[in-house]
Each structure stands twice: as structure tokens, then as C-alpha cells.
């Protein structure tokens, strides 16, 4: 079984797999940006290295989320309810951002790679809703 790399993943996403809908694909260095147009132009960043593919969605600047400690505690308590994705904090241009990410084997089939990206995108939309509800005080810790 072949191992996915930057070029082969770019080709896969550029073919507009039906499960992802209409996408734009750009490459910046070692990272592919897959913009899911039908999901509000959601950007999924994908990288392949060694035996692993990593996919990530930046959700919101951490500074924009009130009561961060309580929010992070909520996320840690409930993250098991988000299938195939994990919450994290990454630094983007010197600023902390909440992110949702997932990883899979670089030996996965094309169908599995596309499915994982689709699931991550759906989970990211749910996570963005969670963050917005938290900001608006609709969810209590």
C-alpha cells in the first residue's frame, strides 16, 4: 500500500471528492490548505510526514474566549464526545488559537482520508458553535 505524501494528497483533494464538496486546494510549504466552500469556506490544514497524516482546523483565538480556564476544563471533560478529533492550542503568528485536529495512518485508503477530513470539518463546525455559545453565556461551566 502506498504512503500518502504532499503531492498525492494535493491531487486527491483537488479532485473535489464528493464527501467534501467543492474545495479549493493550495499548498504552502509542507502544508495543504483544503478550503471547504460548502462548509462556509472552512480551512482544513493537512500535512503528511512519515507514517502519519495530520489534519487541523483553527477554531478561534484563545484570547477571544472568555473564562478560558473554565472553557478548557469543559473541553477536556467533553472531548470524548467529539469522534476522531482532539482539541488543542497552537501558536499562530505569536497568538494562541484553539484548534481541532486529527491524525491517521499515511497508509490509509483514499476513502478513509477523505472521510476523516469530512468528519473533522463537521466536528469543527460543532466546536465553533460550542465556542460561540460559550462566548454568549449560553453554556455554563
UniProtKB/TrEMBL annotation:
**Listed Pfam families:** DUF2170
Stated name of the protein: DUF2170 family protein
Q: Which domain of life is it from?
A: Bacteria
InterPro entries the record matches: DUF2170
Amino acid at each position: 500500500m502506498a504512503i500518502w505524501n504532499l503531492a498525492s494528497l494535493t491531487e486527491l483533494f483537488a479532485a473535489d471528492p464528493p464527501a467534501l464538496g467543492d474545495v479549493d486546494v493550495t499548498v504552502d510549504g509542507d502544508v495543504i490548505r483544503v478550503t471547504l466552500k460548502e462548509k462556509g469556506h472552512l480551512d482544513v490544514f493537512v500535512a503528511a510526514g512519515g507514517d502519519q497524516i495530520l489534519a487541523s482546523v483553527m477554531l478561534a483565538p484563545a484570547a477571544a474566549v472568555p473564562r478560558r480556564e473554565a472553557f478548557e476544563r469543559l473541553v477536556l471533560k467533553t472531548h470524548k464526545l467529539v469522534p476522531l478529533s482532539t482539541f488543542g492550542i497552537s501558536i499562530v503568528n505569536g497568538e494562541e488559537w484553539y484548534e481541532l485536529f486529527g491524525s491517521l495512518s499515511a497508509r490509509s485508503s483514499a476513502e478513509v482520508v477523505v472521510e476523516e477530513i469530512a468528519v473533522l470539518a463537521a466536528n469543527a463546525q460543532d466546536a465553533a458553535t460550542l465556542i460561540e455559545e460559550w462566548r454568549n453565556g449560553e453554556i455554563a461551566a
